[in-house]
Structures
1.
Amino acid sequence: MKPRDRLRIAAQKSGRLSDAGRDLLARSGLRFRESRDRLFCYGETEPVDLLLVRDDDIPGLIAEGVCDLGIVGRNVLREQSLEYARRGERAPFSELRTLGFGRCRLSIAVPQDFLYTGPASLAGTRIATSYPALMADWLDRNGVKAEVVTLSGSVEIAPKLGKADVICDLVSTGATLAANQLREVASILDSEAVLAGPAEALQDERGELAAQLLRRLDGVLEVRDSKLVMLQVDRAELDQVVQLLPAANAPTVMAIEGNAQAVALQALCRGAFSWQQLEDIKRAGARGLMILPVEQMLA
Ligand SMILES: Nc1ncnc2c1ncn2[C@@H]1O[C@H](COP(=O)(O)OP(=O)(O)OP(=O)(O)O)[C@@H](O)[C@H]1O
Ligand SMILES: O=P(O)(O)OC[C@H]1O[C@H](OP(=O)(O)OP(=O)(O)O)[C@H](O)[C@@H]1O
Ligand SMILES: [Mg+2]
């Protein structure tokens, strides 16, 4: 492979990972000039270019050295890793970061009247899936012999068409399964968008560019998952409230002018708050509870 002095990132051209992937790159300070065909976008702010492709092609592009990094679903990356493993080879790409969007699971689903009591119930069945390597691996690990029928799409319709007895496909809300009268019985992989890169560290200038990009990405991911919580609470109830906060560090507790009984509290918290958590915090004595997004953060 010829040395390159610009880094190349592959992302899905159009689909479930496109918008959030582009947004993440933009937040990491990357701006691209859109070309007419929109397949190759020249990086204007950094020597980092973007290639817009089908998601299934991303691991292969990394394997061939055409791209250095890629935003792809773990389901696609693992499937293609397993194809190497089943040939006794080591995959030339790996998962570098989890990106927190495109969450779904790869699940086995059966028709409503299928009696499923565990993996052994699948013995001798035909299983339709677009993920034959992941499916075969799961069957092997569970000691089940079944026929894997590989379909590239519309997997959910396979049982109705008589092409398979059960299916294994991506599920998020479960609406597609319900619409096809299928019932989810086992999940074989939890997936989300990941940043993929070569298994071996990049040589030439690209190594440093990739390391810099990863540092920025880590900052963006940390901020995205952080919230600033502000509230007031009586001193007597302070400990109780603090215990309910998923605070990253010890919260800052401040005096309130003219009110010796209460304090103001400020805490950096990780993850989203559920309504239940908010109710619990309020019930524990918090007043004027505010949850603010964090724009940027410097450690
Ligand atoms: N229902 C879902 N909810 C959340 N994420 C999903 C869902 N379905 C798929 N994904 C994730 O998004 C990725 C891309 O899904 P999409 O349906 O856009 O792919 P595709 O049809 O294979 O697109 P392409 O044209 O690029 O090949 C999947 O590989 C998976 O990681
Ligand atoms: O559990 P749900 O929320 O219904 O999501 C699951 C569906 O989403 C994906 O397909 P998508 O909608 O992306 O269409 P595609 O088959 O054309 O890729 C996946 O292949 C399932 O069919
Ligand atoms: Mg695809």
2.
Amino acid sequence: MIRFENVGLRYDMGPEVLRDLSFEIQKKSFQFLTGPSGAGKSSLLRMLFLALKPTRGLITVLGRDVATLSRADLPSIRRRIGVVFQDFRLLDHMTTYENVALPLRVRGRSEDSYRQDVVDLIQWVGLGERLHAYPVVLSGGEKQRAAIARALIDRPDVLLADEPTGNVDPPLARRLLRLFMELNRSGTAVVIATHDLGLMEQVEARRMVLSDGRLAVYD
Ligand SMILES: Nc1ncnc2c1ncn2[C@@H]1O[C@H](COP(=O)(O)OP(=O)(O)OP(=O)(O)O)[C@@H](O)[C@H]1O
């Protein structure tokens, strides 16, 4: 579904921060992306959701070479990729419901067509009681779950989550992991970028380990 071939990345005139990355994120797969701080996880995630172009090599997303995508092509491909950012990026003046519904509203969908889906998804992530709360009153874990729901509302083929358990206690981290696994069982590919060894030990899953700009994959 997303394929990297000999991908390299450098910022400006600096050294290559990622080198010779070749791997594929397959449909319906589940993997962790890990590595020491500064190894390039965030940069790799940004390339995975098409926010950053590689300086060399080939990236194909859903069969399309990203180097040849026009600006007009980007939104339809990005919609297939859900992203949960480390800092959540919820809009402060919107409730949980409004934040989660936003991607559909931006697309011009009528509220009647999505209201129930949004409510159901918010309940699925365990935020039913917080439907009309604003981010300022949500805990870190609640914001995390609102961000997950927003990333999923448009039914992406792949979910990328950057340190999704970074702000939550171990019981909630386990709950979030179960949520990701349930999502994966229903057919969504999942990539979890994390430093959390305890989290990774809970599931047998592919590990993509970045170190010194290179990637080793353990299936
Ligand atoms: N916008 C940028 N301009 C120049 N260099 C950058 C930029 N973003 C990242 N880098 C450099 O690229 C390397 C990889 O950074 P990146 O943020 O991808 O690592 P990371 O593994 O996500 O780190 P962390 O886990 O601490 O967030 C680092 O050496 C960093 O200094």
